[in-house]
Amino acid sequence: MQKICLLGATGSIGQSTLDIIAQHPNKFSLECASAHSSVEKMADICRRFTPRRVVMGSEKTRDQLAVLCSDLAISFEWGEAALESIAADSNVDQVMAAIMGFAGLKPTLAGIRAQKRILLANKESLVTAGKLFMDEVAKYNVTLLPIDSEHNAIFQSLPQNLDGAHTQDVRKLLLTASGGPFRTWSVGDMQNVTPEQACKHPNWSMGQKISIDSATLMNKGLELIEACWLFNMSPADVSVVVHPESIIHSMVAYCDGSVISQMGNPDMKIPIAYGLTWPERISTQVADLNLFEIAQLNFEQPDLQRFPNLRLASDAWYMGGTAMAVLNAANEVAVAAFLNKQIGFLDIAQVNEKVLTSAEVVAVDSLETVFDADLYSRNLARDVISHGHFL
Ligand code: NDP
Ligand code: MG
């Protein structure tokens, strides 16, 4: 029986993880869970899974949840310290890091330092803390399993997985991208798109923030950086391949010309189940892949003119240090502003570029430097937005 701490239980990844846990009650149990403000959703989770500890974002939401679930023997807690504490709980075997955004960094690090097996969906934590994150993984000898479908696919297509062996045989990583809902749209057409349009991903059903990131290609930019940290590569070793059907989840090209890929229907339950049981596999209720129905797989070059975020991510990697935390923070602020209809869709990349090119970038020598860069960049992004000084 594997005891799971599910950070971000009320989200899209949270829901898919709960589906796998519910499907295999003799293999997994939900030991701890967290949400930010979704009280009703968390009350349902508490009724179905009775975790031992549950953490909410504020005292108020914790109290509301405790009232709704007063008949259940659960410890209801709140705040950052409690979040770190459940990730490090001595009963927990595996931590699913599925909080949205930079807020996931500290609890994920707490899980690493407590030597839990880490299932990483929260790409922003690795993108922002980078080397520091990977150094902690090595120092605490932690098994880090990528849940992001592309990185999970690369992991499955590598011979010796994450320990670095045989990587000299790897020529390139081919990171696939659906292209998002505006793949074929002109810049003019994208000018006035609404949050509702941008959230409608053609293939995947996901949380709001990552859906917008998929539409701007910032998600692929974050994933490019994520792949570089996870697999010890640089952007020159990673080709982004637009593949609108989202059936090939990514590929590894080897020095002998072989290309190995992982395929499947676009359903996050596949990488989640693989992470939970690796090196074994377990059944999911995902439908069989029907290649006759799919009939065609297409591939295109990404268009960096229409989707500059992908270029910005690569720039941030080569700038190094806090540049990736700066870019991520600007993007989190810009996406929230777009969702609140304060800025237009195309302004997101403009805010990101403005902040990345104006912020001071320093070496990451501690977690404080990452948090300072994040705070500085958020303030700068808010300032840029409120003054309309995008470029
Ligand atoms: P959702 O928005 O659906 O869910 C986010 C979860 O995080 C919710 O439980 C939410 O709680 C919680 N949360 C939000 N803000 C905070 C905060 N400040 N502090 C603590 N908890 C918070 O996101 P997704 O499930 O789509 O994505 C989660 C992560 O997984 C992201 O990093 C994303 O990039 C990554 N990912 C997601 C994929 C997907 O298919 N969805 C695919 C690959 C990666 P509440 O409900 O109370 O707000
Ligand atoms: Mg992905």
Automatic annotation (TrEMBL):
The keyword NADP appears for this protein: yes
Entry EC number(s): 1.1.1.267
Enzyme class: oxidoreductase
Residues annotated for NADPH binding in this entry: T10, G11, S12, I13, N122, E124, G207
Cofactor needs: Mg(2+); Mn(2+)
DXP reductoisomerase C-terminal domain: residues covered: 263-379
Signal peptide location: none
UniProt keyword annotations, A-Z: Isoprene biosynthesis, Magnesium, Manganese, Metal-binding, NADP, Oxidoreductase
Residue numbers binding Mn(2+): D148, E150, E223
InterPro entries attached to this UniProt entry: DXP_reductoisomerase, DXP_reductoisomerase_C, DXP_reductoisomerase_N, DXPR_C, DXPR_C_sf, NAD(P)-bd_dom_sf
Binding site for 1-deoxy-D-xylulose 5-phosphate: K123, S149, E150, S178, H201, S214, N219, K220, E223
Domain 1-deoxy-D-xylulose 5-phosphate reductoisomerase C-terminal: 144-231
One GO MF term attached to the UniProt entry: 1-deoxy-D-xylulose-5-phosphate reductoisomerase activity
1-deoxy-D-xylulose 5-phosphate reductoisomerase N-terminal domain sequence ranges: 4-130
Record-linked Pfam families: DXP_redisom_C, DXP_reductoisom, DXPR_C
GO aspect biological process, one term: isopentenyl diphosphate biosynthetic process, methylerythritol 4-phosphate pathway involved in terpenoid biosynthetic process
Catalysed reaction equations from the record: 2-C-methyl-D-erythritol 4-phosphate + NADP(+) = 1-deoxy-D-xylulose 5-phosphate + NADPH + H(+)
Record-linked NCBIfam families: Dxr, PRK05447.1-1, PRK12464.1
HAMAP family named among the record's database cross-references: DXP_reductoisom
Family according to the record: Belongs to the DXR family.
Protein name listed in UniProt: 1-deoxy-D-xylulose 5-phosphate reductoisomerase
Organism: Marinomonas transparens
